[in-house]
Amino acid sequence: MTTPARKPAPNGDPAAYRDALVARAQAIFDDLNFGEARRWKEAEPGRKVVGYLPIYVPRELIHAANALPLGIVGGGDAIEVIHGDAYYQSYICRIPRSTIELGVSGRLDFVDGMLFPSICDVIRNLSGMWKIMFPHVYSRYFDVPQNYEDAVGGNYYIAELAELREDLERVTGTKITDEALNNSIAVYNENRRLVRDLYALRAKVPWKAPAPEIFLILRAGLVLPVEEHSEMLRGYIAAAEAAEDRSLRDNSRVVLSGMFCEQPPLNLIKSLELAGCYVVDDDLLLVTRWLIDDVPTDGDPLANLAAAFLHHSESTSSKYEPDQAEKGKYLIAAVKRSGADGVIFAAPSFCDPALLERPMLQNVLRDADIPFIAFKYAENSGQMQPIREQAGTFSDAIKLWSGA
Amino acid sequence: MTQPTARPSPAKPPIAEAEKDASMLKQKAMMAAHYDRLADAPETGAKVCSTFVPGNLNELVMCFDLINNLPEVNAIQSGLRRKSGAYVLEAEKQGHSDDVCTYVKSDIGMMAKGNIGPNGRKMPDPDVLLLSYTGCFTFLKWFELLREQYKCPTIMLHTPYQGDGKITPNMVQYMVRQLKESVIPKLEEVSGVKFDIDRLREYLKKSAEAEDDLVAVLKSARHKPSPIDAFFGGIYYIGPIFGAFRGTDDAIQYYQFLRSEVEERIAKGEGPVTPEGPMQDQRYRLVVEGPPNYTSFRQFWKMFYDEGAVVVASSYSKVGGTYDFGFRHDPDRPLETLAEYCLGVYTNRSLPMRVDMLCDYIEEYEADGLLINSIKSCNSFSAGQLLIMREVERRTGKPAAFIETDLVDPRYFSPANVKNRLESYFQMVEQKRSGTRRKEVAA
Q1: Residues of B in contact with A161 (CB under 8 A)
Q2: Phi-psi domain of A39 (left: phi exceeds 0; alpha: psi -120 through 50; beta: other)
Q3: Is B6 a residue whose pLDDT tops 60?
């Protein structure tokens, strides 16, 4: 299936339309009370909202229950964490404490269920904390297989999906039929195709689709209904491509790696581009493109989702790589696909998956002669000057010495 | 000009040799023999399988004539011998983050510095890495890192997490399928030994026998005075069964011996043997959550026994199996029982389950309260412990306290801070007691 024709920019001013979409995405990003999701819920009685944390949950199941999947990626740098810090030692990353802050402060009081995917021990344990702290909210640790054989990991995953389906039916009061689920898969296939188009556009003309805008547009997809987000994607892609108000700079092209869970401050992404790095690929908000091919929309939807997870999903450090020869090749592929000059490893402090994976990825890059730098951040990092200097030096070095 | 007279430095008192139970000496000999077997492997031709303590499938490993090597135990040995600090630094020099698990970095640093084991001999390269992924995300990355170094076959066995506080049939089936279709065929391939399920049954039978005696030892702490310390002493008690001896005659004999030693102490009304001799005075009975610090193990323990604090139950002594809740390896269901064993280990239990367990321990062992030793390295244990503390306090009405150290990184053991906190905690227990007494008198 091909992506339908892109929506033309209204009123003939693509730059203005693009900016309006980005402004809306920025407003959604800034709203720590999730007003868009609240309004969606209030619009019709009986509507339910199910939250999920990084990296991946099958949002199709929530959608098929007529509920709204709500992506929760911490509180960023705008939230004052008062209660959340009391639950964590200094050596635990930021995302769980600001997520608890969101919960304790009532910002998630409209959420009917929470899913905590298998990513690391901190998010795993947060699932149990949620059960204790919010006993009236449905919460589930969403486990995924680390065995990728259909008859082994596949069967296990299908049964897990079936359990989740039953749970969601109970929470929402809506029967999830195969037909509804296949329809939801089609809707998300479309959304993922558009996200891939967006990434392809940025890799092609990064000055027209800068990384901070891509990030905001994707973030909006964690809150908006998927159909509305697809409209936003269509509109942004068309407008950004058509707009002629931005020109190419003498920047280097980089891939960002390590940002798949706790999100960097928006200012950090802006700083990288200001420092002379076009971000042409990244692992931000992987849920938006976790399944890399269309999932079949006929037949057994759970089996199809399972097969997609096992055989057609992104690689990242929270997944086991059974074949040593393939270890880290996903990053090389991202560099090649996007025509990048180098990689910036940016990991949240105390992030086990990203920081344990990093030395292996760096070895793979060394073997491939791809330059890289590394630093750490927190979602509330405020001081960008050191990062800007490091990224600027990296960009200059690439410009001066690459291919020499 | 006259030379200044050198001031004589005060003579340091010699560090007294730690006193040990007969069982500790027996275990020391067992461990020495095991490390020699490992070191001899290149000459004997024996093949080596590295795996982890939680989810350790020793019975299965032995079915293929493989020698079990546990990198966590090697890191502990490095910590106890004060070598881990240099190993951790070496790994960080290689580019490993200062934020991540120090077991991993101790292991990687030890490799970089010649891979010398606790017996002073070179550890063999593993022939296979059995990635038993149970209750700890870091395991997954640890063995990917080792695979990169050793370039040997790596077998994944994924244990699902008990997020909803129960073991479901789907979880067990998934694990049994992995064992049948992946783990066992690959172990056959690496070892050249055909799998014999009856051999596995025999080992499992032996495991269950030793497990009965271990549980009797752990439960002995219900006595007053407690004949054991279930945390500091507990680390010795779990050594053979969590390590390379479960399923062997050696383990059966060790646990029979240990049990009789403990029963003798009960009969005599004696406490556990500390490094400075038998513990006479038991003023505080504690439940401890979290692992110990190994780099200053003896100093850490001393802070407890000097104050008359004995640990009557601990969660750390359940990381390699929760036998005290009734689990026994079952030879009649050999593969299912291996799955259920992995699923049941402490760090694979949800946070609410852990809270229940600690509350039950406080009641069962009539403890004065809960002490949490939070470990920088271990998010599996540590993330959520502050909520655990609140919940246990709320539900039991007993005081809880929190200290922070690390497993094998000496930089994170601050004796003065730990001691201060412990002393404050013991005062808190006293206040709670006197408050209770006042209420009783008033009533």
Answers
A1: none
A2: alpha
A3: no
Of the pLDDT bands very low, low, confident and very high (cuts 50, 70, 90), residue B267 is: very high
d(CA B49, CA B69): 6
Residue numbers in A near B353 (CB within 8 A): 128
Residues of chain A with pLDDT > 70, as a percent, come to 97
Arithmetic mean of pLDDT over chain B: 94
Give B401's contacts in chain A (Cβ within 8 Å). Answer: none
From B100, B164, B178, residue closest to A152, measured CB to CB: B178
User: Taking the C-alpha atoms of A46, A47, A52 and A58 in order, what is their torsion angle to the nearest 10 degrees?
Assistant: 110
Instruction: Search chain A and give the residue with CA nearest B406.
Output: A91
Mean pLDDT (whole number) for B386-413: 97
Q: What is the pLDDT of residue B2?
A: 41
A154 in contact with B, Cβ within 8 Å: no
- DSSP SS3 for B264: helix
Evaluate whether residue B9 is within a structural domain.
no
The two tokens of residue B143 are: 């063995």
| Domain spans, chain A | 31-176, 249-306+313-404
Q: Give the residue-averaged pLDDT of B260-267.
A: 97
* B200 Cβ neighbours under 8 A, 6+ residues apart: B59, B60, B63, B331, B334
| CATH code at A249-306+313-404 | 3.40.50.11900
Residue A334, token pair as written in the block: 């991202």
Contact B52, B73 (CB under 8 A): no
Q: Do A89 and B404 touch (CB under 8 A)?
A: yes
Enumerate residue ranges in chain A where pLDDT < 70.
Answer: 1-11, 403-404
Q: How many domains does chain B have?
A: 1
* Residue B304 maps to a domain: yes
Q: Are both A31-176 and A249-306+313-404 of the same fold?
A: yes
Cβ within 8 Å of residue A139, ≥6 positions away: A113, A114, A115, A116, A127, A130, A131
For residue B413, the enclosing domain spans 22-442
Q: Pairing between strand A68-71 and A49-52?
A: parallel
Residues 6+ apart with CB under 8 A from B35: B117, B118, B119, B121
- Collapsing DSSP to helix, strand or coil, A252 comes out as strand
Considering only CB atoms, which chain A residues are within 8 Å of B177? 151-152, 155-156
**ipTM of the complex, rounded to two decimals:** 0.95
CATH class of A31-176: alpha beta
